[in-house]
């Protein structure tokens, strides 16, 4: 649950999670294309990339 102060300034605290980098990049790509992106986005990533600790929801959103 968000605190009143966080709600007033439009921020929230999200603890970072470990996620697969390939999955994270694909989610960001899909969000871009679903949002009306008009250009193709081609990615060539190795499947053996490490997991990263991130606020994945914010990364995908941006």
Give a short overview.
This protein has 62 residues and is α+β, with helices and mostly antiparallel strands.
- Give start-end ranges of low-pLDDT stretches: none
Task: Report helical residue fraction.
Answer: 40-55%
Strand/helix succession: HEHEH
Radius of gyration: 15 Å
- The strand order across the widest sheet is 1-2
Walk me through the structure:
The protein is an alpha+beta fold and 62 residues long. It has one domain (14-61). Helices cover 42% and strands 13% of the residues. It is built from 3 helices and 2 strands, in the order H-E-H-E-H. It has helices at residues 4-9, 21-34, 56-61; strands at residues 17-20, 51-54. The chain has a two-stranded antiparallel sheet with strand order 1-2. It is flat and about 35 Å long. The mean pLDDT is 77.
Summarize this structure as a short list of keywords or feature phrases.
62 residues, two-stranded antiparallel sheet, alpha+beta, 13% strand
